[in-house]
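User: Please fill in residues for this 193-position structure.
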């Protein structure tokens, strides 16, 4: 496991390039978002996504959300309407996960067979840069149903296993996961924070 320390407010191209190479090669990374640290894998790599599920001890029946680099990428991974895109425009980038109908390119192994997918565009340059070549998983870096922790050291201890690469920016300001907003019904539904 490799740990790369950097600054949350300044994107280090070398760190991003190394992390993207790990993701492209089927690895799993621990990375900072605008909310909590997340576990990242290339969504198109079934084995890597399965590792994320196993690391979290998460049920395969629970979908994992994906992260894209910008609002412009949302139509590639979803069937968002113009109204939905306009609604999201008020919130993104930011600490929100939007539930939308998925597009055909989103693999079933990510969504547990659901027709929907959770999508994030965080207000984190590091996270968005990691997803420029392909969408990545975005799920809190903790054991399912256990507390999310503040630092990579605490997180790795809780997970009890190694990821392939860690991007360490120290403690994050937020301790809350993203707010989930379901846009698959007629009116937006705020699911949870």
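Assistant: Residues filled in for all 193 positions:
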């Amino acid at each position: 496991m490799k740990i790369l320390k950097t600054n949350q407010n300044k994107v280090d191209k070398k760190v991003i390039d190394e992390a993207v190479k790990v993701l492209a090669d089927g690895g799993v990374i621990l990375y900072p978002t605008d909310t909590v640290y997340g576990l990242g894998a290339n969504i198109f790599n079934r084995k890597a996504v399965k590792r994320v599920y196993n690391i979290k001890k998460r049920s395969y029946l629970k979908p994992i959300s994906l992260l894209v680099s910008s609002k412009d990428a949302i139509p590639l991974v979803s069937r968002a309407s113009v109204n939905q895109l306009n609604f999201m425009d008020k919130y993104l980038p930011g600490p929100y996960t939007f539930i939308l109908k998925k597009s055909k390119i989103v693999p079933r192994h990510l969504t547990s067979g659901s027709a929907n997918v959770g999508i994030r565009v965080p207000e984190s340059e590091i996270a968005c840069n990691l997803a420029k070549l392909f969408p990545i998983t975005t799920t809190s870096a903790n054991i399912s149903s256990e507390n999310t922790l503040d630092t990579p050291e605490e997180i790795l201890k809780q997970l009890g296993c190694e990821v392939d690469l860690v991007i360490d920016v120290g403690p994050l300001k937020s301790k809350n996961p993203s707010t989930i907003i379901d846009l698959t019904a007629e009116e937006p539904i705020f699911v949870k924070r």
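For context: The two ends are 31 Å apart (CA to CA).
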